[in-house]
Every structure is written in C-alpha cells, then in structure tokens.
Amino acid sequence: MKKVLVLGAGLVTRPHVRYLLDVPEFEVTVASRTVEKAEELVKGHPRGRAVALNVQDEAALEDLIREADLAVSMLPYVYHPTVAALCVKHGKHMVTTSYVKDAMAALDRPAREAGVILLNEIGVDPGIDHMSAMRLIHGVEAKGGKITSFVSWCGGLPSPEANDNPLGYKFSWSPKGVLLAGRNPARFQRDGEVVEVPGDELFEHYWPVVIDGLGEFEGYPNRDSLPYADLYQIEPEDWMFRGTLRNLGWCDTFARISELGLLDDSPLSGASSPAAPGGPSTYREFLARLLGTDSGTDLRQYLAERWDMARDAKPLADLEWLGFFSDEPLPAGAESPVDILTACTKSKMAYQPGERDMLIMQHEFVAEYPDRKEAITSTMIAFGIPFGDTSMSRTVGLPSAIATRMILQGEISGISGVHTPVIPEIYEPVLQELETLGISLEEKVEVLEA
Q: Which residues form the domain of 377?
C-alpha cells in the first residue's frame, strides 16, 4: 500500500484527492490547518484520513512526511521549499503545481543524490500549458521544423451562461491572488524586440484574442515570458509571449483600479486607514480619502473629469457596481486597499450553485520547415461540472494527481531532482490520461507559405 500525503485542502484540491482515493493501492492523508476542510475532501473514505496541521509546526510536518511515500504540496508557494527539503531528507518524492523558485531549484542536486523527484508546475498554468506546448514543439522538431513565433494564452472565466456581472469574471481560486497578479510587471518579445511592462501599466497592454466558438476576449501579458524560450529550448525570431485572457472591458477597468491604488497590499495608515480615529467607515469615504477629496464630493463626476471620460463610461459603471461610490460599510479587519477590494469583489463575483466556470488555453505558434511555413493553433476549452468540480480545480488537480500515481506506480521512473513536465517521459503519459478525462487540446494547422 502506497501512502500519499496531501498538504492543503483549498479550492482546487478535491478532484486531486478523489482521483487518488480511487486508486485501490493508495492510502491518502489530507492535512490542513482547518481539519473540517480535509474531512470534507476525504468524506469518510476507508483509505482516507484527515488530520489537522499547522504547517509552521515543522516537527509535525516532518512526522507526516516521514510516514508517506510521496507528499503533494497544495500549500502557498512559500512553504514548498520546506516541504521539499524534508522530502529530500527522508527520501520521499514530492509533487506541486507551483512555479519553481530559487529555493526549490537549489534542491536539485540534493534530490538527485537522494534519488527522489521534486516535480513542480504540474497543474494547468503552469502545467498543461507546458505539456501541450512541448508536445507540439517536439512534434514540429521531429518533422525538421522550428518554432519562429510563440504565443500562449490562458484564462479561467465564467462559462457564457454564467457570465452575468459587469466585470465578466467570477472567482474559482483565491480572490486576493487574482487581484495581486494585476500588479506583476511583464516582459516579452514582439517582432524580435524585448518589451518591458511595469506592473502599474500592465492593463494598458492588451490585445483582442479570438477563440473559435466563443468569440473575442482581451489578452494581456503574464509575467516574464522570456525564460520559457530556454525552458522549451526554442529560439523564436518573432513573438515569445505568454498572456492572460479576460472578457471584454476588464483591462480598461482594472487599469483605473490600479491607478487608484486599490491593488496596493501595503498596510493602510494615516487618514485613509479605517482603524485611525476619524478614519473612513464606508466605501465612498475610503475612495474619497484615496483621491484626496471631500467625502461629500460626487466621486463619479470627479473621476469622469479626472479621466476625461463620460459619466456613464464602463470603468465608472464598474466602480459603482462594486460599491465604491456607496455608503456601504467597509469590511471588518481589512488591512490594505487590496483587502478592501478583495472583500467587495469576493461577495459580488462568486459562483452560484450549479454555475459552471470555463478554462481556456490557446497556443498560437508559427513553425518553419525547409519547404513551408505553418500557423499552428492548439485550443482547449474545458467547462466545470454543474454542482460538481470546477474546471479550474479539475485542470489543476488532475494533472498533479495523475503524475503522483505514475511516480508511485513506476510509470514515471528513473528521473530524480527538481523537474517541470517538459520532458516526454512526463508529459506524454499525463496528457494521454487527461484526454481520457475529457481534458485535451484541438489542433489546427494553416499553411502560410509553401
């Protein structure tokens, strides 16, 4: 009997845990700070166990890792290096869906010496994006071609019938994480030239993206795209770009939200702090303090004049819908502007029972061969299950669960050290099984030159 330790019981963990519990020779322990969340995932399964764990209690964490054959970390990324180091210490494998940071990369040699694999970035983005891109890239190279332009998009959105709020978005994972991602600077290659985008200008750089069967979306840069050329071992002469998809109007509104400072996670102080004597107690008072104007000001008109736009312009309508011109009380315990924004968006932009989310991924590559040039488009549209698992939780949780099973059952073997799923030994079997679960990409090829 193989023992799997799953650390964390967040929004994307349920499909992962249920998949592993369906493997007859696996025992699964789910450890969470809130044991009730772990119990909800295990649901009394005879080979499942829920335990309470404060991950900062390293001795307790080590005891759980010592008992397991493999640890899956669904914790915030800052805890992954601690988990990984303990796995290496006790000769245990590890799987996580998060990006490889420097502290994780530093464990490559110790992991190789211990004969264990620390497999990272095996979710959806990162994860399915890597695996599907590498399968396509290796396929082009096997036919004697090379990738000269690389553009990849991904976005988690409401399905069309559930897209019923002005911002065109609902949260299928951490609301604060979604919002803070809007502060990230970006870097990419366009027409062979490197483009640098400061974090406070992120939403000013967006383009229309057409997805067959769904229509037009907005796409904007996702962090630093350039390291992926090395990761994928390609040398594109034109575009090297990874981006995020949102529904139309998102970028204009969030450019204004960013300008107002509502994405700032610095602790509030001075007159803008609700905790200060005489501090703001309503959304309207708080926004007035941020703008440096009187709380009796017509804030919608004030901003219309400041931004030189009509009073009924979409960014102003969105701010009103969010409640920033209202006398609604501020959320208790908010410590920063983004905490306040998180509270109001979380309450207004939640999925209702039975609603589906949607995960879109699209690669747009140009491949050159000795005798022709091709445009390759590879698209995945995955929907959540009404009253069941979200698409986000399935596309994050299932790849990592499949990889976990394959490592423990010897289908991924002879590999040690810190890895991402960019080698055929990992991506081929994982993608093949995902296809049996209804998660796949459809490829279209158009000859540009012959």
A: 128-250+353-390+442-449
